[in-house]
Amino acid sequence: MAKLLSQTVEVQGQKTTTLAKNVALIVGATLLMGILGRFAVPLPFTPVPLTLANFGVLLIGLTLGSRRGFAAMVLYLIAGSSGMPVFAPSTLSGVAQLLGPTGGYLIAYPFVAFVAGWIAERGSKTFARFAVASIAGEILLFIAGVSWIMVLLHAPLAKAANFGLYPFIFAEVIKVMAAAELGRRARTSSRFANLLA
Predict the structure, then answer these.
(1) Can you tell me the distance from the alpha carbon of 138 to that of 73, in angstroms, rounded to the nearest whole number?
(2) pLDDT tens for residues 4-23?
(3) Engineering a disulfide at 51: which of 40, 163, 184, 187 sits with its beta carbon 3.0 to 4.6 angstroms away?
(4) Which 3 state secondary structure label does DSSP give 197?
(5) Residues 42, 110 contacting (CB under 8 angstroms)
């Protein structure tokens, strides 16, 4: 009986440690997104700024995996919609920013992190796999963002793409490649792997 009780206490301790570690990783990723989201450059010809948040969502999905990445992005949206200054600086804040021109991108973040993380979790930890995961996440991100611009501005696809896709292609290629390499390095690092275990 004492042995069974000891094993039960040990299992409960492991579950508590795992929960605390997951919460710390998710909150830390949310804080990182809050910092990266503030690095934004407004462009005069589009209502969508150039921001590091897209890089952040990919990196978080690739490094934390699908479920933790999704949770971190949901927490990020909750923080931003409650008025915390985590979204790109704008004339809008809080929930209004989710309903503004960047709303489609923001609302897609949890799903982008999930898709990138899900692809990265399967198979070998190669740059090619992480690059494919990042590209898949970016495609989802821009489908959501451009679609939202079409709805919000009642714009045809060509005009919405001029606002929400074409000005960002060069920078997004750099972000995708950087996230893929940094994500791969983190996931193949023994120290980081122990943290995620």
Answers:
(1) 15
(2) 545 555 556 667 778 999 99
(3) 40
(4) coil
(5) no
For residues 54 and 164, give the distance between their C-alpha atoms in angstroms, rounded to a whole number.
13
Phi first, then psi: what are they for 50, rounded to 5°?
-85, 125
Token pair in block for residue 160: 């919405």
pLDDT at residue 1 is higher than 70: no
Among 1.10.1760.20, 3.40.50.2300, 1.10.8.60, 3.40.50.720, name the CATH number for the domain at 48-196. 1.10.1760.20
* Non-local CB neighbours of 119 within 8 Å, separated by 6+ positions: 129, 132, 133, 136
- Which residue matches tokens 């503030």? 38
d(CA 154, CA 177) in angstroms, rounded, equals 33
Neighbours of 7 (CB within 10 A): 10
Q: What amino acid is encoded at 27 in this protein? A: V
